[in-house]
Amino acid sequence: MKILLVRLRLIGDVVLTTPLIRALRRQFPDAELTYLVERAAAPVLDGNPHLSELMIAERRRGLARLRDDLSLARRLRAKRFDVAIDLHGGPRAAWLTLASGAKRRIGYAIKGRRWMYTDVVQRPPDLGPRHSVLNQWDLLAPLGVPAADPERDSLEMVADPGAAARVDQRLREAGIADAPSLIVVHASAGNPFRRWPEASFVALVCQLVRNDPTRAVVVFSGPSDAGASERITRQARQELGSLAAAVPTLGHFDVGEIRALARRAAVYIGGDSGPLHVAGTTTAPIVALFGPTLPERSMPWRSAVIAAEAVDMGALPCRPCSQRVCAPGDFRCLAGIASERVVAAAERVIASRTMSEASYE
Predict the structure, then answer these.
(1) Measuring CA to CA, how many Å separate 104 from each of 86, 99, 140, 310?
(2) Rounded Cα gap, residues 182 and 267, in angstroms
(3) R_g of the chain computed on alpha carbons
(4) ∠ CA(341), CA(291), CA(294), 5° rounding?
């Protein structure tokens, strides 16, 4: 059997499909599993042991996009897939699923696109309190795949030795490779609705270092807000004075390096974005900040014995939201989270991991 998986766009969304890949391989051990993904998210799947092939859908615009998709459609059709599963549901993903020519095409019951599939699955509400992995797992039901279980099928991303070596070198050059406790903080998001105030990040970093001066804190941000980490690091260093060396400026990290960095962390702290889900493929303790989205939908999908805490504002009349317009106008669902709450959560998960490790000594 030849199975095609289609999931375009965002890194975090692709990470959240990785439990399905393992489940399909277990259900169909002799199948050829091909995954179609855009280039930016391809590092998430590089080396995945359950995939037979990784195909790239280039993301260009205008006539170039049309030419790319027509060429890609010919390549897909030539492979003669038996089953194609659209894990995305967007117009382009739906068209490519149809264009693959697969005899059986599984997708969500989305108005205007359901005719492209032979098997249609009802799509749960995007804003509902149900995990994204479970929402996508519904697409496996027509194939008889058993229910999802994070203990058995957790998020997965293969470690990149080259990325790990680069991270190690940068930590050595910064003089923090031997720090007893490394704290990793992701301080940006492509969506302004998911950006915690920079002043709150500064307060968080400073308090964590003051609580234990032997710690080192690495702050990074993505290309959508590349200057955030530098501004936060600079301000934190100024406020920390003699402890400033604990917060070096390390710049940008690629996807593989983010995983390597998170894997070393005593705690990873960040909002609901791609790096959070990349960190979720490791055993690092996690503190996740949630604003317009819900923890029930986006917390790391992995064993419950690995420490993780969600910090949010709880019930608000406007939460969750579609992230198009902030009704109150002040982004209170995220901006209202006090740095003291995040510090306390970080200290708890660090202590939890320390006690867990001590129990094996």
Answers:
(1) 11, 12, 12, 39
(2) 7
(3) 21
(4) 100
In the chain the domains, ranked by start, together with CATH numbers, are: 2-143 (3.40.50.2000), 161-358 (3.40.50.2000)
351: phi then psi, degrees, rounded to nearest 5: -65, -35
Reduce the DSSP state of residue 283 to 3 states and report it: coil
Q: What are phi and psi of 310, to 5 degrees?
A: -105, 140
pTM: 0.94
Summarize pLDDT for 178-213 with one digit per residue, the tens. 999 999 999 977 788 888 999 999 999 999 999 999
Q: 33: closest CA among 20, 43, 16, 14?
A: 20
Residues 192 and 262 sit within 8 Å (Cβ to Cβ): no
Directed axis angle between helix 228-240 and helix 198-211, to 10°?
40
Backbone angles phi, psi at 8, to 5 degrees: -95, 170
